[in-house]
């Protein structure tokens, strides 16, 4: 019976568990509990941590995992674990500690946990790159463009720890024999098999799967001719029948939806109370002094599920009948002097925090277009409507990636849609925070297309 090749993760995961729990136990000294209660607290949080970690997949970190995912997982873990710690002092009221001391405990503990986790992650990368350890031997079956691209990645990105032994071109004819490839895999003790979907018949595919299962080899596929396979699909079971959904949208998850809404409410409340409350009267005077018309400009736009809503902005143009039909262009004569400053600094968008508070919008999401433009793009631009699976945002990934302001060519809107779809398929709270900081930085620096 073939043996599965040894993996460092067998030892790394238990070590990581022990280090993290050790940090929590040491930091628990902040609570100055009697020894018997300290032991009870340690048992309680150890149990809670183990269950939570298994459920959240906190230790399912692999060599190809992105750092942003590690950080977002840690933030999510910290949020839920904080509730577990608070619940301990809620159950044992006689041991009650102040919220400040609990939050200090969480801050110190998770700062160390994240530091250790990232240190181990980067040390392993350097170990693989410079010492050649902790590697996986691979073979690529197929000679397509994507297969060659993967081989190039294995060769250049040595910090990931993959050693590609061979790339084999195969024929899709039934006469082609997989047996020599199987013998090579066994003789060279290959750990992982990567194969091209486009160059395998169903019969060959089943043979390869059977071989991998029977010999404890990891089998992975390169989606090089079926675009649908390159999507971030979700696998469900209807009874015992496997069903693939076209895409998985993280914000369809109730918990993720709650986190995003709580973040939106907190930030919009802060902006409304501490910024708009004093900024609006000042801007109202300046806007009124320069031109007649209302202080706020409202415009119908399409949001979640294509529903229409009124989007609010500070008025930056003279009152004109074309405001809801024609987008502002460079050196647009309709824009007032005050309006140019508002647009250049993106301050005209600030009233949209009212939309966020009301629930029409989110702080981060696909930018909503005026209704007339939405109808036009929906008919012209492929996948444009996908953006409406989630709430629109004041800012978005497309805007921070250089696609804000006037749509000059179809390339602009196509690129914008591409970034918006990536965002809705890969949402995380950390990504939202990153986009917000990038937006503030761009506003302070000034943007070429902000007019």
Write a concise keyword list for the protein shown above:
single chain; 451 residues; alpha/beta; Aspartate Aminotransferase, domain 2; 4-stranded parallel sheet; two-stranded antiparallel ribbon; 14 helices; 10 strands; 12% strand
In total, the number of domains comes to 3
Strand content: 5-15%
Distance between the termini: 70 Å
| Strand order, largest beta sheet | 2-1-3-4
Q: What's the average pLDDT?
A: 84
Radius of gyration: 27 Å
**Element-by-element helix/strand order:** HHHHEHEHEHEEEHEEHHEHEHHH
Low-confidence residue ranges: 1-6
**Biggest β-sheet, characterized?**
4 strands, parallel
Number of continuous helical runs: 14
Helix content: 40-55%
Give the overall shape. Answer: flat
The tally of strands reads: 10
Secondary-structure content class = alpha/beta
Protein model, in words:
This protein is of the alpha/beta class and 451 residues long. It has three domains: 123 residues, no CATH class; 95 residues, Type I PLP-dependent aspartate aminotransferase-like (Major domain) (Aspartate Aminotransferase, domain 2, 3-Layer(aba) Sandwich), CATH 3.40.640; 192 residues, no CATH class. The strands form four sheets. The protein has a four-stranded parallel sheet, sandwiched between helices. It has a two-stranded antiparallel ribbon with strand order 5-6. A two-stranded antiparallel ribbon has the order 7-8. The longest helix is centred in the middle third of the chain and has 37 residues. The termini are far apart. The N terminus is likely disordered.
